[in-house]
Amino acid sequence: MPRLKITCDGDPKDRRIKLKLLEILAPADVYANALYEANGGYIINASEKEVDTVLESAATQTLQSHGFYPILPPEIKARRTIICHKVEHTAFENTKNDIADEIENKQEWAKIQDAYKFPNNRNNTSGNTLKIQFETISMADKATKQGLRLFNKRKEKVKEKQEEKRVKSQSYSQAANHHNNANTFPTSATALNNNQTSKMMICYLHAHAMNIVNPGTFQKTLIDILQENNLPTVILPNNPPSQQIIQNMLPSETPQIMEPVTTNLATTTSAAEADLELSSDSEEEQETDEEEDTGLPEETTQQETLRQPPPLPELIESTSTHTVTRQHNHKETSQTPHATNNTDTEIAQTTPSVKQRKNQLRKTRQPEPKWTKRH
């Protein structure tokens, strides 16, 4: 919104001066709420059309006759001015006043406030450039769209062609540059982003769901919900197979078959038995070392071993083998209840006792050399 400044001869704080200014500006629809006091005058905050009406020649003369002097804002001056490039040489040879009069004579709607001729030098590459300032913005817009006729020559609407060329250059640069957004087609300026596509997909699904409940309302529901979310409307068949579409969109769930995992009990039990045998051998070696260190006879050590309870590894080993044989011979035990006792006796006969293992270790072990003390 442009800001128009109006200076005055008297004191801006004087109420009579302000009322007189409002009386002059009333035909331009400028009221007291848009008028503010400033240094040496007033400032008007109004629309572009209202400011343009105040700055017309007739209104400006009326203001100046009552001691008010409006200052043209730069944005309004730029909107009122057009630039004509490559004017015909026969028309460009005339003075700026002759050119302004010729434009007003040939175009009855045109009123020129100022005209300027750019000199033809090295900086002016286009040549024969003319700048014309009209009294209103609407006149400049009309001259841009229709063109100007002067000295039996017609100056076409060059400005519109330049604007079109600039827009094409911008669109080409947009297509040439790499876009970092999530558009599917980066060369298109009107491509939809992921947020809009997801919203449209939700609207379509909602329309299909409402069509299942109330058949025949798909198109109306879709248009209404797209308009409420400011999305582009799409015309689709009025009664689509909504139920089949939603069923096909849902993922199909197939039951997964769990295969049982089998383990070889024989291998696991044999590994456990081997660990137990190694632990029992290590304990027996420790016991033999303790006998040699103490120097007790063999009978006392045998009596102590008989008094002590049987070692834990042997019990674990027998129970583990007992459970394995039970698992493998479950049917046999159900038919003959005494089968487990027989297997236990067989295992007990095959496994050597602690005394036998000690004797074997003594036979295999070599006697250590005895050292004598020299006197």
From TrEMBL:
Stated name of the protein: Uncharacterized protein
Top-rank taxon, per record: Eukaryota
UniProt biased composition (Polar residues): 172-188, 317-326, 334-354
Organism of this sequence: Scylla paramamosain (Mud crab)
Classification lineage: Eukaryota, Metazoa, Ecdysozoa, Arthropoda, Crustacea
Skewed-composition ranges (Acidic residues): 274-296
Biased composition (Basic residues): 355-364
Residue ranges of the region described as Disordered: 156-188, 272-375
Positions with biased composition (Basic and acidic residues): 157-167, 365-375
